[in-house]
Amino acid sequence: MSHRQPVRVGDRHAFDTLIDARSPAEFALDHIPGAINCPVLDDEERRIVGTVYVQTGAFEARRIGGAMVAANIARHLRDTLADRPENWKPLVYCWRGGMRSGSMVTWLRLVGWDAQQLAGGYKSFRRHVISQIDTLTPQLDLRVVCGATGSAKTRVLHALAERGAQVLDLEDFASHKGSLLGSLPGVPQPSQKHFETRIAAVLEAIDLKRPLYVEGESVRIGRLSLPLSLVARMRAAPCIEVRATPEARLAYLLRDYAYLGDDREALADKMGVLKEMQGKETVTRWQQWAREADLPHLFGELMALHYDPHYEKSQELHFKAWAQRRSVSATDLSDQGIEAVADAVLALDGRESPSA
Question: Which of 92, 183, 212, 230 is deepest in the core (most CB within 10 A)?
Answer without folding.
Answer: 92
